[in-house]
Amino acid sequence: MTVPTDLYAVIGHPVAHSRSPAIHAAFAAATGQALRYERVQAPLDGFAQTLADFAEQGGRGCNVTVPFKFEAFEAAAERSERAELAGAVNTLKRDGDRWLADNTDGVGLVRDIVTNAGVPLAGQRVLLIGAGGAGAGVLGPLLTEGPVQLVLANRSLDKAQALTAGHAALARRHGVDLLASGLEAPGTGFDVVLNATASSLGGGEIPVPATVLRPGALALDLMYGPAARPFLAWAARHGAIGRDGLGMLVEQAAESFAWWRGVRPPTAGVLATLRAEVDATQGH
Ligand code: NDP
């Protein structure tokens, strides 16, 4: 007799590069949970159908990645407060015949900064660059940490303004001076600088002047692997402490896993293994 295992997946396009199956397999092994976690590539115009098929196969939950985080938002019958604020969803959980939604990117990033890197956000000046899906997902959880100021800088200023307007009440509740800016002059001497743009992907220029960094600032690119290298080198050249997005990746996955399974997996070992794999592919 075979023991039934619950089915999970990451849905995206492309999705072949995703490390989520390995991360969730490691979490399942560490917590003794019986589950299967697959990669599912949805056609660009076929997210809703792919999600319906996945439910039909008995899918219990899924992560959703580029470019479907906004469609996942629409597909959900109920959303967490942070998913509502973000307008984007990276985690779905099956509940009877409907999907519940959350966005765990922001809490994953916060946990990597505060717990793994040991850098507090409370009372700090934070620059968040990028108002796309990732920027939208992390803004709320960053604000709830109570930085004294958070500047959201984006190439298209109107997107940054829309996002800060949507988060104004939350910022007020946590005593944060929340501002929108373009990329040319977002301010100087920040304690924490977060790159949530896709500029690293194209090997593009660092999108802001180096004066945004105070000496010893934490400079974190949400990207990881070779794509994060130019940003990390830029941070080191200008006296900041560079960090990539691998810790965030593992921590957001842990948050999804905990929501699905009701048990929080340990993350340190998984992050160390992943770090070694990524470094090996970079020729270290
Ligand atoms: P989106 O496509 O939704 O947004 C892209 C953002 O990048 C926009 O703010 C856009 O500005 C900006 N941008 C793109 N090209 C440039 C450029 N050349 N110069 C300046 N700004 C630019 O992408 P996402 O927000 O979903 O993803 C952003 C990054 O975050 C990706 O690299 C992704 O891999 C990473 N990520 C990492 C995660 C992790 O767990 N580590 C989780 C989620 C995302 P504009 O609005 O003006 O177009």
Automatic annotation (TrEMBL):
Gene3D superfamilies: Leucine Dehydrogenase, chain A, domain 1, NAD(P)-binding Rossmann-like Domain. The keyword Oxidoreductase applies. InterPro entries: Aminoacid_DH-like_N_sf, NAD(P)-bd_dom_sf, SDH_C, Shikimate_DH, Shikimate_DH-bd_N, Shikimate_DH_fam, Shikm_DH/Glu-tRNA_Rdtase. Keywords: Amino-acid biosynthesis, Aromatic amino acid biosynthesis, NADP, Oxidoreductase. Pfam families: SDH_C, Shikimate_DH, Shikimate_dh_N. Residues 10-92 form the Shikimate dehydrogenase substrate binding N-terminal domain. This is Shikimate dehydrogenase (NADP(+)). It comes from Ideonella oryzae. The lineage of its organism: Bacteria, Pseudomonadati, Pseudomonadota, Betaproteobacteria, Burkholderiales. The gene is aroE.
